[in-house]
Amino acid sequence: MKTIIFFSVSILVFMGNASRAQDRQQVDAVYKNAVLLYEQKDTFKAIAEFEKVIQQDPNHKDALYNLAVINYALGDQPTAIKFLKRGVHLHDPRALKLLRGQLHEKITYADTMQYIDPATAEKFEKIKNLNAPTLNDITKNILSVSTNAKEQLQLLLLWSHHYMRADGARFFNGGFPLSTPEAIQKRTGLCDEYSNIVDAFCKKIKVQSFRVTGYVRYPDFQPGDALRQTNHAWNFVYLDSSWLACDLFWSTTALEAEGPTPHFVKRLEPEYFLGLPSDFINHHLPADPVFQFDAQPVKIDAFANSPDGIDPQVKRMPYLNYPDSIKILLKLNPESRLLKMARHAYTYNKDNPNELIKESYNYAVGILNDKVSTKNDLKSAKQYLVLAKSLIPLSTDSDIKALKESCDAGLTMADKRMATAR
Questions:
Q1: Which residues on adjacent β-strands are paired with residue 215?
Q2: What are the DSSP calls for 169-187, one per residue?
Q3: Nearest 5 degrees, angle CA 95-CA 100-CA 101?
Q4: Among 118, 121, 174, 370, which has the highest number of CB atoms less than 10 A from its own CB?
Q5: CA-CA distance, 59 to 167, in Å (whole number)?
Q6: Which pLDDT belongs to residue 91?
């Protein structure tokens, strides 16, 4: 794809859609001429040609976006905003990103609702006020108006935006996570609860999904910082033969860090819901590189060294057969899957042993709590406790460091049980 870089945005050479083939050819010809004029630095003639495009095709997203970019570069911010808002109403994520990120323009709920298909929004209105104290009730209500899995997830997005709120007190002051039933009953949570809701919902509607942890850049992030612990959780869902990224928390709430008191606000952000993994990697880095869904994943330094996006100067990882890795993970039971993902995560980022410590410890505890565990099972539990204990000194997390005594107690219990186990 040919692009013309202009400041931090691009003039695009995509073609729009018109109602008939002949009309489309005419529109595309004018659009090509507009791009050519811009390349030749004949800016005002280019503007005139782009305006001809939207006269013939008012829904031509790329012409609208380019007119916004050019007018912004010329210092005409009100006109740029006008074209970008038209783009938002046509579901153009680039327009929304520019309005919020570069022009700091406030977007209303009505603006963001333009991202949702009107038919889906209408279905939500039918179930919005129905009683739904549990996930079973939410699922039942959604299934009563939709048979399409993608739309069902979008209805969950709308329900969550309408009813859920971020647990700001726990985010800023700490505390224990909630179970999925508790989160729905209290209508509150953070990324852990929101991603668990998506995971549980996908099981109910029979959509393959993964809940993953990883790294995002919060306001205190500095390029070059070592990523010593994961700080976010989200999902990947399998729809229409493709894996899509799904962050229900970021899609329905936003952290307002500016001002005297940081706080969360409700905000519908559909661009973080059902997005391409190749786009998500710019702001969501999975702890396990398998979930980049890329044969040559980016290295962690490419994310950590950049204030946003991926540093192209950092060489990518060697070939990774991620489709086979995904197939293997899907065949494992939940405990073994989490353990394998944690191994991948530690291999990927040696600065963060926490995931492998937690999952090794949890896996061992599961064996010790099983009254019918065999001697071989208990040997395996000991191995995982020893592994967890060996990694604890590498962690900077006080909660992780506190697991040392529990590991010692687990090893003692394993030895006692092995004396009588078969």
A1: 285
A2: HHHHH--PPPPHHHHHHHT
A3: 100
A4: 121
A5: 39
A6: 61
